[in-house]
Amino acid sequence: MPASRRGSGSITLPTGQTLAFHSHTRSSEDDDLPHATKKKMADHLRKYEALFTLTPQRMRMIVEAFKESLETGLAKNEQIVPMIPTYVFGWPSGNETGDYLAVDLGGTNLRVCLVTLQGGGKFEITQSKYRLSEEQKQEDGQKLFDFCAECLKAFIDSYIDDGTIKAGTRLPLGFTFSYPCAQKSIDHGQLIRWTKGFGAPNTEGHDVVEMFRRSLEKQNVPAEIVALTCDTTGTLIASHYVNPKTRIACIFGTGCNAAYMERVGDIPKIKHLGIPDDEEMAINCEWGAFDSFEHENLPRTKYDQIIDETSNKPGEQAFEKLISGRYLGEILRLIICELIDEGVLFLGQNTYKIEIPYSFDTAFLSLMESDPTDELLMIIGIFSHFFALETTLAERQFFRALAKLVGRRAARLSACGIAAIVSKKGYLEEGCMVGADGSLYNKYPGFAERIHEGLHDIFGEKGRNVVTYHAEDGSGIGSAIVAAMTKQRKLAGRYPDL
Ligand code: GLC
To answer: Which ranges form a coiled coil (predicted)?
Structure first.
C-alpha cells in the first residue's frame, strides 16, 4: 500500500458553484497505478519550457512587426489587423448624464443594463446576465438578435413594473457588439467575421444594427439604438470617464483586443471624409487578428496549430488563439493528451473525459496556479472530479508548471500588443494607464504582473511607466457614455455630418 493522507478543499467551478471535495492523496510515486516518475516529468517540462518561453529579444521583434501591422491597418481598408475607425470622437468630458440602456453581446454572455450617468465621473448600473448556449452561437443570426430583443424587453418590463422606468418612455440604447464590424457611422456596423467560436449564419457581411433594430421593432421594445460599440472602445471611454490618464483599453477574456484614441490625420484611410486632422477618433484595433493567415511573426507550437486547424475559422485570429481564455485550457489539454498518447501519463486509467475537445476550462489553469496547498489538493480535485483521473504529486507539480508556461506566454504576448501601441503613440516617456478587463485579466492569478514584467523586458526600466489597471465596465457604462456623447453631438448639430 502506498503511503497516503486524506486531503480536502473546495473549488469554485466556472459556473460559479462551489464544490467541496475530500480526496485520498498519494505522497509517494510507487502506488498501484503506473505513474510517471519525477525525473521523467522534469524532462518533459524542459521540452515545454523551450517551446513556450518568450525571450525579451523575441518580444521586441514581435512588437516591431505588430507596429507595422497597426500602421498598415490605419492606411488601408481590409487589412489583417483592421484598425476600425469607430466614430467615437474624442474623450468623454466626465459630465455626460442621463439614463441609458445597454445591451452587450459578448463572447460568453448576453448582458442587459440600465445605466444612469450622474456626471462628475459617477454612475449607477443595474443589470441582468444570460448565458449563451453553444447552439445559439451557431443559429441563424436574426434569431440571435431576436433573443437579445426578448431579454431586453423582459428587463425593461420589470423596471416599468417597479417604477424605475416610466411607462411610455423610449430610452436610448448603446449596443455593445464585440466582434469586428466595419463602421460607416456610430450607428452602423457591418460584421466582418465572427470570432470567439460564433458562427451564426446570415450575419457576416450584414449591418448588425439594422438586424437588431428589426428584432426590437418586431417585439415592440421601447428602445432606440443610438450607438454601436465594441467592448474595447467602451472600456476605453468608461475608463477615461473615471480615470482621465487612461490612453489604451484592452480586453483579455474569451477574446482579446485593444482600443486607443488616434489623431484623425494619422488615419489615412478615412482622409476622404474631410474630418479635421486634429480631431481624435477611437480605433478598435481588433488586434486578435495579428499575424492571421501568414503566421510569420508569432511563435506557434503544434498545439496552437491544432487549435487553429480544428477551429471554425482556420487561419484567423492568430494572436487571439495564443492568448484568450477561450483557448488556453485547450492548449494545456492538448499537451496532456499528447503525453497520454506517448504513454507517459495516466497509464491504466480511463482517459476518455479529458480527451473531449475543450473539456479543460481555462478557469482550471487559474485554479491550478493558485492552489495554496503543498499536496496541490485543488489539482487533485480538478482531475478526479472532472476527469475521473488520479494524479501523483509529481504529475500535479508538472501540470501546475505547464499552466504557468501557457499563462505566462499569453501575458507576455499581451505585453507585446500593448507595447506596439505605446511605442506607435510615443507614450513611453510620459507613461500611460491601460484600462484592462476580461476574465483572464481579472481572475487569472498574476496575469497583470506578468504583463508588467513583459513590458519591462521589452522597454527596460521605462516599461514601468506603462501601468495596466482593472478597467470600468466598458460594455455597460462605456456603451452608455458613448450613447450620451452621440446625443450631445446630435444636439450640437454635429451629427450625422461627422
Ligand atoms: C474578439 C472580438 C473583439 C473583442 C474581443 C474581446 O477579439 O473580435 O471585437 O473586442 O474578442 O471581447
So the answer is: none
